[in-house]
UniProtKB/TrEMBL annotation:
It comes from Rhypophila decipiens. The lineage of its organism: Eukaryota, Fungi, Dikarya, Ascomycota, Pezizomycotina. This is DRBM domain-containing protein.
């Protein structure tokens, strides 16, 4: 994997390599007082992974990145690091 890739790109590459379905993202919101908080979840390999944090609406990309990181770490735990590159390769 190339240095500087986003978590979404890393997750998609891992899914291709492990020959599993591409990730499917969903944006979710929660009304909090007079504001709305936004987050993301991603379904990959039959499991839903939630972003760790909630974000302002202008930071939805961060919410997807957060969920992608959670999902990729889950998959690495299942399948191990790819091609002997070790976790640092991603």
């Amino acid at each position: 994997m190339a240095y500087g890739q986003s978590w979404q790109e890393k997750l998609e590459a891992a899914c291709r390599e492990w020959r599993i379905a591409v990730p499917v993202y969903q944006i979710v919101s929660d009304r909090r007082g007079g504001r709305t908080a936004w987050s993301s979840r991603v379904t990959v390999y039959g499991t839903v992974h939630n972003a760790k944090f909630w974000y302002d609406g202008k930071n939805l990309r961060n919410a997807k990145e957060d969920a992608a990181e959670v999902a990729l770490n889950y998959l690495i735990g299942l399948f191990g690091a790819s091609n002997g590159t070790g976790r640092g390769g991603w």
